[in-house]
């Protein structure tokens, strides 16, 4: 079992930056591909970014590419999402998620591939 806890959400003006963190319990973190998803009010949860267990491979949703950067520190069991040039449409609850298939070569953008989820952290971008 993996427990995930997100930190770093808050209120920021458009054009500003935030860095989200997701701490994970257990050594399995370093073997798992990880992802960030978000859910805006009244909308379905959507993919934001994913990173392979090694950190070498990443993928981003088109709406955040070039503005957001996903990274990880396997020694500290922490996943990050650096968000720059934030827009009001980035307002959502952000979730980190773990794909428990060990050392998987396939990073996924779909929710069903992820086994564990954090409780989410609110990001609000004002115009």
Short structural summary:
The protein is mainly β and 127 residues long. It has strands spanning 4-7, 10-13, 18-24, 33-39, 46-51, 58-60, 68-73, 78-83, 92-99, 116-117, 121-126.
Structure description:
The structure is a single chain. The protein is an all-beta fold and 127 residues long. The chain is built from no helices and 11 strands. Strands 2, 4, 5, 6, 9, 10 and 11 form a 7-stranded mixed sheet that branches. A hairpin with a 4-residue loop joins strand 7 (68-73) and strand 8 (78-83). The chain is globular and about 40 Å long. The mean pLDDT is 96.
Features:
globular, seven-stranded mixed beta sheet, 11 strands, 0% helix, 127 residues, mainly beta, four-stranded antiparallel beta sheet
SSE arrangement:
Elements: E1 4-7, E2 10-13, E3 18-24, E4 33-39, E5 46-51, E6 58-60, E7 68-73, E8 78-83, E9 92-99, E10 116-117, E11 121-126
Parallel strand pairs: 2-11
Antiparallel strand pairs: 1-3, 3-8, 4-5, 4-9, 5-6, 7-8, 9-10, 9-11
Mean pLDDT across all amino acids: 96
How many distinct helices?
0
- Determine the fraction of residues in helical runs and give it as a percent range: under 10%
Order of helices and strands: EEEEEEEEEEE
Q: What is the C-alpha radius of gyration, as a whole number of Å?
A: 13 Å
For the terminal residues, how far apart are their CA atoms? 40 Å
Largest sheet: 7 strands, mixed
**How many strands?**
11
- Low-confidence runs of at least 5 consecutive residues: none
User: Structural class of the secondary structure composition?
Assistant: mainly beta
| Percentage of residues in strands | over 45%
Query: Can you tell me the overall shape?
Result: globular
